[in-house]
Amino acid sequence: MITTVEIIQISYIIPSYILLFIFAILLTKEILIKKNPTFNNQFYPFLLYKVCTDLVIVASTLFCSRAAKMNLFGSFFQNNNILAYYYYIQVGTCYTILYTISVITSFNRFLAMSYPFLLDYWFSPKKIKIYMIFPFIVGLLFGIITVTMHPFYVYLKPIAGYYIVFKDSRTPYVVLIYTIVYIVPIAITSILMNVVTIYKLTKFLKKNNEKSSQDTQLVIYSVLDFFCFILFLIYNLTRVINFLTAKSDVIEGIAASAINWILDIHTFGLFYAALILSKPLRNLFLHIIYPDRGGSVMVVQPINTHYKSTRI
């Protein structure tokens, strides 16, 4: 059954997804093909990694989860539990990547503000590849473990659609262990680094009588990304704690509805925030509409007390 809320969500998901897909192509071209130093640096490759991950998870969620809940294809999902397996493999992989990117971008801005001389070491091309491969492997392993809990579609009368549940009752404990061992340490680390980064940035701007800089905008983006990550953390903990204690259907229903909004905010909200905050990204995107659009771009560099952002 399709609700009014779901119609609203679909109305912005489809056009936003198309724009995000175009953006991914443009940024891929600048980073991997043109090797444009404005984007092929120590920050934007992670943004591209996030965007590509977002595209996968939004498409999978739209078809394997949201379409099932809306019961768009009748009994199709009930007879194709393989989609539930696929969905949770990519959920485990993609969410782990997104969580890790959040702490990596926080670490990037932390170094840029506090230890700029270490930025080249910790974000060398080799280490950037490691930062991208590691969460993929961890996430894939978690996804494989999750599907051993045997997810399957079940028809729920209250929503008049299909919902994915697990045959194995140990699933919440697996999620809890994953949350405590992997997600919580990331959250704590991100909190500490973001606090220090914001303090250092504020101090730098006051000392140099500046109101803003490109580095400020990147810090704002990484902080927004972190807050979205915290929403995911709250969602995971709420579901696990609810299962272990109250087992409330109301709480489970609220969490199931909230995750769609959280995913949309994390995907499309951060996408539009990146365009608003970053002039190079904005110009890159607007170049499609205005091919002859001129304007300067900002070169992303670390901040220290002897340096100011350079405009070309």
UniProtKB/TrEMBL annotation:
Organism of provenance: Strongyloides stercoralis
Membrane topology per the entry is: Multi-pass membrane protein
User: What's a GO biological-process term for it?
Assistant: sensory perception of chemical stimulus
Where can this protein be found?
Membrane
Q: Per the similarity annotation, which family is this?
A: Belongs to the nematode receptor-like protein srg family.
PANTHER family, alphabetized: SERPENTINE RECEPTOR CLASS GAMMA
Gene Ontology cellular-component terms for this entry are:
membrane
Chief site of localization: membrane
Q: Which UniProt keywords apply?
A: Membrane, Transmembrane, Transmembrane helix
Q: Name one GO molecular function term.
A: transmembrane signaling receptor activity
Pfam (any one)? Srg
Q: Which residues cross the membrane?
A: 6-27, 47-68, 88-111, 132-153, 173-197, 218-238, 258-277
Q: Which InterPro entries match?
A: 7TM_GPCR_serpentine_rcpt_Srg (IPR000609)
Supply the name of the protein.
Answer: Serpentine receptor class gamma
